[in-house]
Amino acid sequence: MAANSVIKYGIIGVGMMGREHLINLHHLRTEDVAVVAIADPHIPSQHHALDLAKSYNWPLKVFTGHKELLDSGVCDVLVVSSPNMTHYEILMDIINHFKPHHVLVEKPLCTTVAHCKEIVDAAKKRKDMLVQVGLEYRYMPPVAKLIDIVKSKALGQVKMVAIREHRFPFLVKVNNWNRFNINTGGTLVEKCCHFFDLMRLFAGANPIRVMASGSIDVNHKDERYDGKVPDIIDNAYVIVEFDNGCRGMLDLCMFAEGSKNEQEISVVGDIGKGEAFVPESIVNFGTRAAGRAGVESSKAEDDRIKYDGLHHGSSYLEHLNFLYAIRAKGEKAPAVDLEDGLISVAIGVAAQLSIEKGRFVTIKEVMNHE
């Protein structure tokens, strides 16, 4: 690829998130990118994507399956935004294909630790491909600002990370695939791998063990799909212990529409404390020495964002950063790599297992168990 040549994207899975990627890439067209193909067996999703692309003057090749798209050879980069349970097969096919494709795969990487590990191992043999995992919460302006504060050591040694997500229930997806653990990996994998990734980033360490309590208390209880009742939990508390002594806690509630902020993130070190609020996009920072009166509050913004979309501009920045990595021709690693994807899933799997077993679950246990 010449430095200024158009980079051709294909999107595998053009449901709600796939079309969100299409819109983001349209807003990146000044960076010489174009979506040229989609693959999805669901005809209504195809039509929605085609309507979008038509409004952008982007002619699309349409495939019903990812293998046909791969064999067509029309793409340089693939975005995998199909349902969670399809990621493993699709990624293995992409990695093992003779033509190299750079890949941005939506979170979670896979629904099981075993499948994530297989992907990690397979990708090591493909030095001609970059694979980035779509843990884009890192790019939300207030979260990115808090990451910078932590990296600057302004908080000192991080000791505690608390993340609260109080939000609306899961949205309706194609064929209601997201209503069942077997398809999603469970709520704490599907939704919360984002937060476990952030905890690890803030802690600057790897997880050792997890304790969780959660259940399905309010949402989806009156829903039936082919006679089956949804089994995804709608609330949980999760404690994660890290190998440097730091602890993380997640407070998840998915029937909390009456919240001012969907995410509230607190990072406390031995010197100070930082907080990020989404979608208010406010960051607070204070030190123990200055006390309550010395807490500074500021708005977090990023002038590069041309499209806010569903995730407050983070998907746009994710694509921009991945594009820089692609154009650097191997000199720049993906910002969120497969190891990050694997560990975020492992914490979620451990949390789901902890709820089931009613005990602490070690990361070692889930890494070796599957």
TrEMBL record:
Q: Where is the Gfo/Idh/MocA-like oxidoreductase N-terminal domain?
A: 7-134
Recall the GO molecular function terms of this protein's record.
Answer: nucleotide binding
**Gene3D superfamilies, per the entry:** Dihydrodipicolinate Reductase, domain 2, NAD(P)-binding Rossmann-like Domain
| Residue ranges of domain Gfo/Idh/MocA-like oxidoreductase C-terminal in the record | 150-362
**What span is annotated as the signal peptide, if there is one?**
none
Q: What is this protein called?
A: Inositol 2-dehydrogenase
Q: Which organism is it from?
A: Cannabis sativa
Its taxonomic path starts at: Eukaryota, Viridiplantae, Streptophyta, Embryophyta, Tracheophyta
